[in-house]
Design goal:
0% helix, mainly beta
Length: 71
Amino acid sequence: GDTVAVLCDGFDGHAMSYVGGRYAEGPGMYGCIFFTAARDVEPGDVVMVRITGTFGGDLTGGAVEELSEEE
């Protein structure tokens, strides 16, 4: 799926995943993006998320780690 920048709103204990919205859009414009991450994500962090599915009107995915360039 596509990879999008997500502004994290926090952790949703009911969904057991982080939740946020597209960084470039206003709040609530396109629903929520629920995502998992291998590291702790704080509210206000911008995370790159690969979209892998949908749930109702919302999107689901997983955070992708930035790859460092090795020489």
